[in-house]
Amino acid sequence: MEVLESGNILSYRGRLAPTPSGYLHMGHARTFWWAQERALKCGGRLILRVEDLDGTRSKSEFLDAIMEDLWWFGFRWQEGPDIGGCRGPYRQSARFDRYREALERLIDRDLVYRCYCSRKDIQAAPQAPHAGDEGPLYPGTCRGNTGYETKGGQRPPSWRFRVPDGLRMSFDDRNLGSVSYVSGVDFGDFIVWRQDDMPAYQLAVTVDDHAMEITEVVRGEDLLLSTCRQLLLYRAFKWTVPGFFHCPLMTDNDGEKLSKRNRSVALRSFREQGIEPEQLRVRFGFDGVRF
User: Fold this and answer.
1) Computed over its alpha carbons, how large is the radius of gyration of the chain?
2) What pLDDT, in 10s, does the model give residues 84-119?
3) Model confidence pLDDT, tens digit, residues 237-282
4) In angstroms, what CA-CA distances link 287 with 176, 266, 283, 291?
5) Do β-strands 112-115 and 158-161 pair in parallel, antiparallel, or remain unpaired?
6) If you write DSSP's letter for every residue of the chain in order, what string do you get?
7) Looking at residues 32-44, what average pLDDT do you find?
8) 156 preceded by a cis bond (ω within 30 of 0)
9) What is the Cα–Cα distance from 233 to 112, expressed in whole angstroms?
10) Which one of 41, 151, 257, 260 is the catalytic residue?
11) Which domains does the chain have, with CATH numbers?
């Protein structure tokens, strides 16, 4: 059970959040298995949310394959796009108004600013800091912009969250223990709304996890820095922060994390070979999942 700051008790609510831009691979399966096992251990509910905001990469055939592969592998959820639930809709593409409302709240409080910089501009900036997990840290070129001001003739802007320099972000990860990063060194001002007038990952995930009352986020350790960004958004909205559990990544023979482009480790490929889920869980060390 999760005890909220108000003293109220909220049953455990975990989530699976696949992106339908390719076939699920064993790395996804192991992280999702962690999430399901933790929900089962706590007697809670598991929510399936489809993160399909990127219309150029998200495909209906991949969504169908994901649902089939998850069910085949042994995943069972209690809320989702196929069965409904009280916190839907469960596809991000149907939740646009919620993201827009959240952006307006950030704008009204002057916590974000319009940014006209392209990725190329940032990479070329002489004062650009070292690269982070999302490319070079933003050098602050547009940080002085305020409100809804526009620049005539410029490309459509994105909206960036203004992060104070030198801010130490620390949190207790339920798998890794104490984690700490410093803004301006490890991460900087980040995009919450893209130039194509779509919400960015950081904003959408935070809004959805709050609205769906997720009490614990289970995901790969490659998203640790994203947790810092999302914690800043939780603080800005004054929302209750969920727990976080970051899993080690599954890598290939070269030590690189698995990619959707590698069909040889896709769940669909194993299904086609007639390999059973139980065999895969043994082969890929699912028994090593710990709590």
Assistant:
1) 20
2) 999 999 999 999 999 999 999 999 999 999 999 988
3) 999 999 999 999 887 766 667 666 666 689 999 999 999 999 999 9
4) 18, 20, 9, 11
5) antiparallel
6) -EE-TTS-EE--EEEE---SSS--BHHHHHHHHHHHHHHHHTT-EEEE-B----TTT--HHHHHHHHHHHHHHT---SBBTTTB-TT---BGGG-HHHHHHHHHHHHHTT-EEEE---HHHHHH-TT---EEBTEEPP--TTTT--TT---TTPPPPEEEE---TT-EEEEEETTTEEEEEEBTTTB-SEEEE-TTS-B-HHHHHHHHHHHTT-SEEEEEGGGHHHHHHHHHHHHHHTPPPPEEEEEPPPB-TTSPBP-TT-GGGBHHHHHHTT--HHHHHHHTTGGG---
7) 95
8) no
9) 11
10) 260
11) 2-288 (3.40.50.620)
Q: Are 113 and 70 in contact (CB under 8 A)?
A: no
Note if 260 is an active site residue: yes
C-beta atoms surrounding 67 within 10 Å: 18
Q: What is the pTM of this model?
A: 0.89
Give me 108's structure tokens. 């009204």
